[in-house]
Amino acid sequence: MSDWNPALYGRFEDERSRPAAELLARVPLAAPTRVVDLGCGPGNSTELLWRRYPRAQILGLDNSPAMLEAACRRLPEGRFELGDIAGWTPAAPLDLIYANAALQWVPGHERLVPRLLEALAPGGVLAVQMPDNLDEPSHRLMRETAADTRFAAALGAAERLRSRLLPAEQYYDLLAPAAEVDVWRTTYYHRMDDAAAIVQWLRATGLRPFLDALPQAQLQADFLADYERRIAAAYPARADGSRLLAFPRLFIVARRH
Predict the structure, then answer these.
(1) CA atoms lying within 13 Å on the CB side of residue 8
(2) Where are the alpha helices (DSSP H) in the chain?
(3) Beta pairing partners, 96
(4) Burial level of 4, CB count in 10 A (0-12/13-18/19+)?
(5) What is the pLDDT of residues 238-255, one digit of tens each?
(6) Nearby residues of 69 by Cβ (< 8 Å), 6 or more positions away
(7) Rounded to whole angstroms, how far apart are CA atoms 242 and 7?
(8) Contact criterion met (CB below 8 Å) for 78 and 60
């Protein structure tokens, strides 16, 4: 899959940063020393951590060189590293592992989540937020568009690039034997100007594997046009002419015993 596009991702930074801030607000730590931001992206979440914990040693980790370059421009004083969450292990136990909208791209949560908890020092916190929207019209319609005969041959495996989340109760069971666990789900309703704006939002994230798998620019354009038509029907104009993009997200905060 192609590298991430920080500029495209950042077009809706306020909306993307709101759940990051709300996750951080629930972290029960006053002054952690060692903090890592897994899947730090362009540094918007890392900046939130840096502002709350200015004395902490904060590392931003991401597998996208483009995102890390944007993060370094945003926080020149920050520390960022290229790395893959699936194989990442800290050199020493951490006080806070924070992962905002990142773990949904990593498979094997039955093993990953307990492993992250084990990387914490006693009293340390694992704070996770993940989009839980694969069954929303926004993502269901990606799969329906991909099933069209014009695109199906190229897109057979695209939807499998993102992991389906476990039930919230299963995350609780994975963590509860070794931690105090808080799990909740929030649905945000983001005001969007029109159907095209919804498509632009999703081009930076969920649509990436579909568009990357299409070999020709014209096929990509056709896919986007067909998808936007479906989006316009699924998200009708509201009283003021705008559209509301429903976006469920799963939150987990676990403090290790």
Answers:
(1) 16
(2) 6-9, 13-25, 44-52, 65-74, 109-118, 137-146, 152-155, 168-175, 195-203, 208-213, 217-234
(3) 35, 125
(4) buried
(5) 999 999 999 999 999 999
(6) 6
(7) 23
(8) yes
Domains contained in the chain, CATH given: 6-256 (3.40.50.150)
Burial of 209 (0-12, 13-18, 19+ CB in 10 A): buried
**In a 3-state reduction of DSSP, which class is residue 4?**
coil
CA distance 45 to 186: 18
- What is the mean pLDDT of the segment spanning 56-64? 97
Q: Is the dihedral of CA 186, 192, 196, 202 positive or negative?
A: negative
What amino acid occupies position 173?
D
Q: pLDDT tens across 93-115, in order? A: 999 999 999 999 999 999 999 99
CB atoms within 10 A of CB 124: 21
Neighbours of 71 (CB within 10 A): 26
The structure tokens listed for 145 are: 């568009």
CB 74 within 8 A of CB 67: no
Q: Indicate if the alpha-carbon torsion angle 152, 156, 158, 163 is positive or negative.
A: positive
Beta partners for 191?
244
Query: What would the two tokens of residue 217 be?
Result: 């620019």
First-residue to last-residue Cα distance in the chain = 39
Q: Which residues contact 198 (CB under 8 A, 6 or more apart)?
A: 138, 192, 231, 235, 243, 245
The model's pTM is: 0.93
Distance CA 98, CA 102 (A): 10
